[in-house]
Amino acid sequence: PVFFSIRAYVSLIKPDQTMWYKACKTCNKKVTEAIGSGYWCEGCQKNDEECCLRYILALKLSDSSGEAWVSAFNEQAEKIIGCSADELDKMKSQEGEGNPFQLKLKEATWVPHLFRVSVTPQEYNNEKRQRITIRAVAPVDFAAESKFMLEQISKMKLS
């Protein structure tokens, strides 16, 4: 994979996508509903009464050069959305005016972030694609970004 950093906005989080999966509380691997009750984890080879939800999001990132669909997993998605998948699931089940689920997704869009992403070539149905995955998310430090831009401008003036 190739790694790079970008400053971008989350322009779209599709509310109708599968946003999380049920995971084992011990190893974070996907669980299946066990016969009878509880959840079965293949990784731990055990049955558990409870599981937790972990994010697996598809987001559209936009910057001045364009836009791209990226994948975000639990830790990075929590930073972007501002709550855990369990909390967002509870919001989704609430109904009524001013749906907190929709509001939470709306609050997460058009906020600037610094992203560290990886790009991996992939082939699907004999079609070559790029898989872009968010590896780290940080809020934008506007003072540092302004200083960096001013340095770049002064380098342009010298050359």
Verbal overview:
27% of the residues lie in helices and 45% in strands. The chain is α+β, with helices and mostly antiparallel strands and 159 residues long. Strand 6 and strand 7 (66-73) form a beta hairpin. Helix 2 crosses helix 3. The chain is globular, with a radius of gyration of 19 Å.
Structural class: alpha+beta
Helix-strand pattern: EEEEEEEHHHEEH
Question: What's the total helix number?
Answer: 4
Helical residue percent? Answer: 25-40%
Keywords: DNA-binding, Metal-binding, Zinc, Zinc-finger
Organism: Escallonia rubra
Protein name: Replication factor A C-terminal domain-containing protein
GO molecular function, one term: DNA binding
Which features does this protein show?
single chain, 159 residues, alpha+beta, six-stranded antiparallel sheet, 27% helix, globular
Please give a quick description of this structure.
The chain is an alpha+beta fold. It has four helices and nine strands; from the N terminus they run βββββββαααββα.
Strand and helix map with partners:
Layout: E1 2-13, E2 20-23, E3 31-33, E4 39-41, E5 46-48, E6 52-63, E7 66-73, H1 74-81, H2 85-93, H3 100-108, E8 112-124, E9 127-139, H4 142-158
Antiparallel strand pairs: 1-6, 1-8, 2-6, 3-4, 4-5, 6-7, 8-9
Helix pairs in contact: 2-3
Keywords: DNA-binding, Metal-binding, Zinc, Zinc-finger
Family: Belongs to the replication factor A protein 1 family.
Domain Replication factor A C-terminal: 3-149
